[in-house]
Amino acid sequence: MKIAKTLGLLGIAVAGISLVACKAGGDNQGLEYAPQMYHSVAYEPLTQIKDETRGEWLSTREDGKGEFFNSNIYNPHGMNMREPVEGTVPRNKEGYLPYRYKAFEIDIASANVKNPIKLDDEVLVEGQRLFGLYCTPCHGQGGEGDGPVGNIIGGVANLKGGAYVGLSEGHIFHVITKGKGRMGAHGSQITPENRWKIVHYVKQKLQGGQNADNAVVAEAGQESLVETPAN
Ligand code: HEC
After folding, report:
1. How many C-beta atoms lie closer than 10 Å to residue 194's C-beta?
2. Could you give the CA distance from residue 139 to residue 100 in angstroms, rounded to a whole number?
3. What span is annotated as the signal peptide, if there is one (predicted)?
4. What is the CATH number of domain 106-226?
5. pLDDT tier, 219 (very low <50, low <70, confident <90, very high otherwise)
6. Own/partner pairs for 176-182, CB < 8 Å, 24+ apart?
7. What is the 3-state secondary structure (H, E, C) of the chain?
8. Among 113, 124, 180, 203, which residue has the most ligand 1 atoms within 8 Å of its CB, making it the best to mutate?
9. Cα 120 to ligand 1 centre (Å)
10. What ranges do the domains of the chain cover?
11. 36 has pLDDT over 90
């Protein structure tokens, strides 16, 4: 009887202690099972442990700091994430500025946006491949609006016909990026570079080069790209 009672009390005490030990909050992460599973090696923008000794008992780090220390030693206050410098404009890795024209601004885009990709045979081959992937289901192999999906939905533009032949390259780029009427926007599926390659292909191979941009072919230097909203 006595033994059972003692064991019972001991049980309650152990349970109590473990509950207290588990209490987490604020800077105290409580007791963790397999702690290395919780603490990211990479910087985490939303959590920050600035105490260099935290997790020393577990540490295998080369810099000798505690296992859980995860602040950026180069930033003020050890910040893991910094605000961009005021006036910073994001560019993609090719140096393009974001494409800011709205879907309805098609006429402005049509007049101002120029193809920054240099026209050559390789670009045309790649453009043809991409056109085959993204455009032929509706526009058909020859761009005449007779792809298998085009036959069902109807009303797909014949890129070789009538006024379409004279569309500016900026216009075609804008339509691919933002969509038009019953054609959906493809901006999120196709990178700007690839959209421009498709534009070259459409203009040169399907529309015989009418109203093409290649007179203003840009070397891929920054100066020309400054003018090129393309994302
Ligand atoms: C889901 C079917 C579909 C796909 C895929 C599609 N289009 Fe279209 N496209 C259309 C339809 C429908 C129209 C007619 C839009 C309207 O005016 O209502 C059109 C119109 C156009 C026009 C004429 C725009 C104008 O000003 O009238 C161009 C240029 C064009 N598409 C290029 C492309 C290119 C390049 C691709 C591939 C990246 C593509 N389309 C993919 C359905 C499609």
Report:
1. 19
2. 27
3. 1-23
4. 1.10.760.10
5. very low
6. 177/99, 178/101, 178/102, 178/103, 178/106, 179/103, 180/103, 180/106, 182/153, 182/155
7. CHHHHHHHHHHHHHHHHHHHHHCCECCECCCCCCHHHCCCCCCCCCCCCCCCCCCHHHCCCCCCCCCCCCCCCCCHHHCCCCCCCCCCCCCCCCCCECCCCCCCCHHHHHHHCCCCCCCCHHHHHHHHHHHHHHCHHHHCCCCCCCCHHHHHHCCCCCCCCHHHHHCCHHHHHHHHHHCECCECCCCCCCCHHHHHHHHHHHHHHHCCCCCCCHHHCCCCCHHHHHCCECC
8. 180
9. 24
10. 30-82, 106-226
11. no
Ligand 1: centre distance to CA 149 (Å): 12
pLDDT, tens digit (0-9, with 9 covering 90-100), for 88-100 = 888 877 778 888 8
Does the predicted TM-score (pTM) go above 0.85?
no
Mutate which of 175, 186, 188 for ligand 1 pocket (most atoms within 8 A of beta carbon): 175
